[in-house]
Design a protein that fits this description.
Elements: H1 5-21, E1 44-48, E2 53-62, H2 68-74, E3 79-83, E4 95-100, E5 121-126, E6 129-142, H3 146-153, E7 167-174, H4 176-181, E8 195-208
Parallel strand pairs: 2-3, 4-7
Antiparallel strand pairs: 1-2, 1-5, 5-6, 6-8, 7-8
Length: about 220
Amino acid sequence: MHLSPTLAAGLAAAVAVVLVGVPAETASAARPEVEYSNGEPHNARVTIPAVGIHRLRVIAYRGKTDDAPGTRIQNRGIAASPHGPNGGAGPGGVGNYQVTAHRSSHGGVFRHTPSLENGARVYVDAGPWRYVYKIVKTRWVSFRSAKSLRAQRAPVPGRPGKKPTRGFITVSTCATPEDHAAGNFWHDRFGNPEHRIDKIGVLLKRVTNPNLAGRS
């Protein structure tokens, strides 16, 4: 069929507008299918090569970020992961898998996590599986703001009330050096400063745990 130059140009422009207007994430090939866990709590090991963390123990407990039980776990020089009504999902689950540890005390195992850049990988080994997350953004949290805490603990980090459709991880530690440098010495009864620095990641894939010989 022969089209006039005017009509052909018009059709080409229309196609260009349609293609530009379709977000990349709507394309079926834009995001590979991810195999999720059932979201149940599970002790795990976390590895973050970019900041020198290798198979750090993560203890699952029923609670919320940086409460008394979680602080007692962190005080052992390991990481804590809350679950339950005020906590998060288990490793590899749809929702917000939350991992907290100290930065400037009790071994400071998360001393370097605030420097994580977008694109950094976080590996979580739980049972027979390894869950691979990619850091995509940074959030600051205020312990003096109920709104800020709700955003931190939301199933979709930063968006309370939104239903999650994929897996997230929140790697959280204190902003004590930054707060003190700004003259802010407030802390709660557990010694938490006002602010925390959260690194948010998305689940990329699930693979076989390469460390089955050293189970968590």
